[in-house]
Amino acid sequence: MDGSVPPIDEAASGAALWEVLNRVAVGVCMLDSQRRVVACNDRYRRMLGDVAELLIPGMPFEDLVCACVSRGLIVGGGEHGSAAGWLRERITAHRDGRAQMEARFADGAEVRVEEVTLPEGGRLVTLTDITVQRQQERQLAVRIVELEEMQRRLAAQGAQVAEFADRLESMRDEAERANRTKSEFLANMSHELRSPLNAVIGFAEIMKDELFGPQATPQYREYAYDIWSSGRHLLDLINDILDLSKIEAGRLDLVETRVDLGQTIEACIRLVAGRAQKHEVSVRAALGGAGVTLWADERKVKQVLINLLTNAIKFTKPGGRVTVGVQRLADGRLRVAVNDTGIGIAAADLPKALAAFGQVESALSRKHEGTGLGLPLSKALVELHGGALEIESEAGVGTTVAVTFPSFRVLARARAEAA
Predict the structure, then answer these.
(1) What is the dihedral of CA 271, 273, 279, 280, to 10 degrees?
(2) Which DSSP helix (H) or strand (E) runs through 321?
(3) Under a CB-based contact definition with an 8 Å cutoff, are residues 44 and 68 in contact?
């Protein structure tokens, strides 16, 4: 080998170049230094359509551009709404030897036109189809406008929601202030309401029991009994309302001590025994094993149990039964459940039963007096102990009201006695 370099076959090299250019997705046209067509690839011919018949070597490029417009192939482009305006800009750019602009074809296609001057004085013209790109850009622009409009609407709605929230908060604060005022008023009225009523009840009891001798007319004793009974009922109502008001006002304190739950339940059953006998309802306790000691307010616990027992007896038909059960849960809590075989409560009426002054409409409930405060007050008293009150009921089958005390209130017998 002598190390010499073989000569380049320019014809073969040119043919190979155009074979490569025919494979690219860009239209390419070569011009000589006199700005006449030399050659173009297949893509360029296809993009020019019928005008491609003019693509012959030696064709002046300006004539080719003018033909594209005159034959209706190019109808404008870029910022130009007319073909004439676009043609003027294209010819000017061509004469300057550098062009970078867009053209809009009659079939809707959009093309980027680029022209550069080569070192030997020739020109290279390329056509790139940007139809899809421009469509996506327009869709994106529309979407951006829509999003901006949506953002404006959301901002306006956000301002409205914020204003509405402020009004709601103001209304809530006002309602809470009014409720606290009502609760404080009722709590402060405790003495003023109870004192005269206790006097009425006391004197009515003296007259009905004839402590100072028999009445001349038997009807007076009956009237005295009615006054005493009505007074007791009114006092119970006032006590319930005042207790609820004190709880709402945060002024009801617990007097906590050790409470033997078994003895407390038995005492409550004895207190309602007369009512149960009158309604022909049996009441029993199912304590199941050793007694349980609670750290709680004994009077409040009794108040809860008596309320639950009274309700259960009132809404149980003759021959029915009421059972009080105690169960120690796995997590240490204590569950006390009052179960009856009464008329039950429909699931839709359970929230009403727990609302203050709520009355569940039924044929049996309308036959008995009631303020609708028993369950709400019991629930509030249990929650004051950190516990919970739940109702499970089925109309026509019966009701179970369960009170659950937290584990820290449940004392072991030995520990309680040692204390």
Answers:
(1) 170
(2) strand 321-328
(3) no
DSSP string, 247-265: HHHT-----EEEEEHHHHH
Spell out the domain ranges in the chain: 10-129, 189-252, 256-418
pLDDT at 340 (0 to 100): 92
Residue 3 CB coordination number (10 Å): 4
Mean pLDDT of 155-167: 88
Stronger pLDDT, 202 or 105, i.e. the higher one: 105
Q: Is 120 exposed, middle or buried (0-12, 13-18, 19+ CB in 10 A)?
A: exposed
Superfamily grouping for domain 256-418: Histidine kinase-like ATPase, C-terminal domain (3.30.565.10)
Mean pLDDT of 163-179: 85
- The Cα-based distances of 250 to 160, 171, 181, 186, 297 in angstroms read 35, 21, 12, 13, 16
What integer pLDDT is reported at residue 370 of this predicted model?
52
pLDDT at position 231 over 70: yes
Please check whether the two domains, 10-129 and 256-418, share a CATH topology.
Answer: no
| Global model pTM greater than 0.70 | no
Q: Which long-range contacts (CB under 8 A, 24 or more apart) does 155-160 make?
A: none
Question: Is residue 5 over pLDDT 60?
Answer: no
How many other CB atoms are found less than 10 A from the CB of residue 311?
A: 22
User: Which of these CATH numbers, 3.20.20.70, 2.30.330.10, 3.40.50.1390, 3.30.450.20, describes 10-129?
Assistant: 3.30.450.20
Spatial distance between the Cα atoms of 347 and 78, rounded to a whole number of angstroms: 71
Cα–Cα dist 383/389, whole Å = 8
Greatest CA separation for the chain: 159
